[in-house]
Predict the structure.
Amino acid sequence: MKDSIEFKTEQMKALIKRRNSLSKKYENTVPTEIPLEVKSELDFIDKLLQEFDIDQSIYDAKPKMIGIKNSRDEEWYFQQMVHWVNRHPSALNVKFSRSSIYKFVLHFFVENIALNSSNASLSISELAQKVNGVSSKKDDLKLITQMSNIENLLGFLLTMQQRQLEYIPEVIDPQNGFVKYAINPINQTEFQQFGAPTEINSNNELGQAYAEYKKIRGRDKQLIKKYHQTGGQIYDD
């Protein structure tokens, strides 16, 4: 584990960097328009920086040895921590004494909760929810990535379609080869005057074609799934 001086130096740099980043981001913003959560975080960072050092008198007044009364409940919690340490021996540099484990838990909480500006202001229930919600956040990030890919793909397809329509001729004069291009239907004026069919309307050809396409795509997905489940063999039922 890092000693307090080493960690304090790193944490102070991180907090100051975060404060400077937020201050620079909102330096041209009217104070009344700065988001409340940003103001709260800036105030909290200043408070953390002020509380970094302790007076020598406080240390001198504290006992050098700390006794912790054990009970069956406390022993259960401690043994669960022992199991975790056994799975992660590098966390304590292979020092498995009771005091080293208690010190590790205290240091870990202070470094990752008490002095972390994004965690320290949370209530205990909010903190527990944040810790327990890590897996769901990963799922959310995966979904966001997928949606971003879909958005990029749709934008790419729309761009290709629009560029393609710009070069489709409406009339070619066979005598002189003169080419007359039609107005690209993908523009604001065309939509305002004539509207456009959508895939959610089953009363037009686009909606009917889209519904049929979904059936075919669903069938193909099932065939691919069956193909992999059978090791690449498809049997007729």
User: Anything to note?
Assistant: Strands lie at 169-172, 179-181. The mean pLDDT is 81. The two ends are 63 Å apart (CA to CA).
